[in-house]
Amino acid sequence: MFARFVQLSLFLSLLAGPVAAQDAEEYVRDNILAIFYHELGHALIDLRNLPIYGQEEDAADVASVMLMHLLYDEEAANQMVISTADAFLAEALEEEGDIPFWDTHGANEQRYYNTICIFYGGNPDARSDMIEVMGLPEERQDWCPTEFEQADHSWGNALAEISTDEPGESFVLGDIDDAAPIIAETIRAEVAALNKDFALDTSLPISVQSCGEPNAYYDPQTKSITMCTEFEQHLYTLYAMHEE
After folding, report:
1. Edge-to-edge strands, sheet with 216-219
2. Phi and psi dihedrals of 147, rounded to 5?
3. Angle at the Cα of 178 from the Cα atoms of 234 and 205, rounded to 5 degrees
4. d(Cα 117, Cα 132) in Å, to the nearest integer?
5. 91/88 Cα distance (integer angstroms)
6. Which of 19, 47, 115, 227 has the most beta carbons within 10 angstroms of its beta carbon?
7. Distance between CA atoms of 69 and 3, rounded to whole angstroms?
């Protein structure tokens, strides 16, 4: 429906099937978008009073995957999902076995497989090479189309309800700190793109600012999303771990 292409960078030579090589900046940009879509999921749950059956963090993860599936062409979406999953795996390695099971977020290794599975389930024929490279076990593969159908029934319908053919101004740029240039550039471009795709009943301010830690969050009190500048360097660190 949207078939958005990634306009900020070019894909490099193919490694295996549809899986494209990338550099650090592409990896950071892909993950910033995935993180932003996660927070947008939280925002939509609050602003549109969407029902949640389970943990909200899990629902926001699924929203991120569905937005990548819906908004981008096949090659771009593949690369974004691979970058996102790789970051979860790098986070798991950084934990060195000290997994915070108490956290509201799922374990990073499980988020890795959930992300791959739901995306794969949306187009199994075209995405079979991706799951082979990413190591999704056959036991899980069989369930992925059903998992995608469940995600599409919830988030697909929710996103369809706010889709529009008339550009609007629901998504508003707040304070943008250029100390994190990739985040700032990405959010500016994404706000413009979202206003062409979706319309909300209220405005949603989106800011880029220092938070003192690599983080991003939706604030239900101010009804706004904040992307923290510290996340940019953190993602470069995760990329370096992935390359080792």
Report:
1. 171-176, 204-209, 224-228, 216-219
2. -65, -40
3. 90
4. 11
5. 5
6. 227
7. 9
The β-bridge relationship of strands 19-20 and 204-209 is unpaired
**Which residue in 36, 19, 76, 24 sits closest to 238, CA to CA?**
24
Name the 3-class secondary structure at 16.
strand
Distance CA 156, CA 65 (A): 11
Neighbours of 96 (CB within 10 A): 7
Tens-digit pLDDT profile for residues 22-47: 689 999 999 999 999 999 999 999 99
Q: What are phi and psi of 130, to 5 degrees?
A: -60, -45
Q: pLDDT grade, residue 63 (50/70/90)? A: very high
User: What does the alpha-carbon distance between residue 146 and residue 228 come to, in Å, rounded to a whole number?
Assistant: 35
Length of the chain (residues): 244
